[in-house]
Amino acid sequence: MLWLSRVMSQSHRDDNMKMTALLILCSCLMLGTLGKPQFPEQEKDPKFWNAWAQQTLNNALMLQKLNMNKANNLILFLGDGMGVPTVTAARILKGQMKGESGEETQLEMDKFPFVSLAKTYNTNAQVPDSAGTATAYLCGVKANEGTVGVSAAAVRSKCNTTEGNEVTSILKWAKDAGKSVGIVTTTRVNHATPSAAYAHCVDRDWYSDNEMPDEALQGGCKDIARQLFENIPNIDVIMGGGRKFMFPKNKTDVEYPDVAKHSGTRKDSRNLVQEWIDRMKDKRGHYVWNKKQLLSLNPNNVDYLLGLFEPSDLPYDLERNSETDPSLTEMVEVAIKILRKNPSGFYLLVEGGRIDHGHHEGKAKQALHEAVEMDRAIGRADLLTSVFDTLTVVTADHSHVFSFGGYTTRGNTIFGLAPMLSDVDQKPFTSILYGNGPGYKLVNGARENVSTINYQENNYQAQSAVPLSMETHGGEDVAVFAKGPLAHLLHGVHEQNYIPHVMAYAACIGQNRKHCTTNSGTVGLHPVVSGIVALLTVTKLLC
Asked: Which of 66, 217, 532, 541 is the most exposed place for a label (fewest CB within 10 A)?
């Protein structure tokens, strides 16, 4: 009887497999008979591709006249976890959100004329974390994983290795040069990425003194929230989440008074927000905690802005309450309108931080919509600035073990199935998959059949090869997109810590300013460098 039961069970599973295969086949046939071409008719003509390539070539030839202006403004867009596969998938999603097939769509970052690669490893890690990488692209030096604003001589969680190993960021270089500076993020403002702009901390998780061990507190180390207001006391614009780390322990949150986990965390009883308000009361400073308050401000009447819109991280864009929570694009617009009033220019760090969170949770749909929203913010920044005096860089701190494949047809929804069954277990699979993560699921000892669940749902966790509670970062190089003054210096393959050196050079801030002219709007080469260039040119002509 047991044998018969197994045979019948196997027969039932085989019938299900056949039905699934038939459904997929029927879907493909229906798509083929609906009269909708799989790609535009014009693409059948070689003239289309040749004309497009020739136009691209003409555009490239125009770039031979390099932008040698001095960068008055600097903007760094950091897509946390936005590896190249994420960029490509976000491009397709952006197009499909507009009713296009998606592959031919252009992201705003795709329009940047210069693209390079950055090597992301930390000094002690082949596959990096966001703290060590932030120290690289903000402070100009590579560092150990888990540490922010300190050199590799500092050891994670060891308070006594902090002093003497601090390194400063390009945000501070800009502030010291008289520029306005700002931080905008969709995570908490004391998270790994933004904290490297102002803090010197041997542990990225020391958000407030509540998260610090007694040994570190007794050793004189400061939590990151405190450093936000004390290290560079006059950061002009700060927007993101992280309210609870600024208030005394158990103080109820203004937005969620009945939710205990959102209450204040500080053991030192300090109210860092009120201290900031008191300090800025005569400096046209404004504190806001919701979208209505933010958008009611007249940027012309605001010199300092502190916006803390959630107790911790901001919600995913797909889950955002559009009435109460500002989008990244809205925050960026307000930030630029405040910062650009300074005739000496500004530096702005913008982080699309929840791309990373979506991937860690295996929720590709959340991650990709976060990337599309950051691209929207890049477009808004473009409208508010000029390529002639603003150097804009878009990059990622690291990648993820995220991929999409399966020989999908043109225009296949990015969150859809591959047009085939596995030839091993005869089950369908989604195009998007992870190398590891929480999407590893077994049903009756076998891989879950995705056709039996809603794989298009916002919080669907894509299948992974290895089971982990949280998906991991990837170790490959990340793209660096650049436009504006001296953007051509971001070329080829470089170490990640090269990025702030280029940005500082273009703006004549930081350590190497000898090349800067004082009587024109261009950046002149140092005479020694100019001589070398001339010598190389002559040598080339003679040879």
From this structure: 541
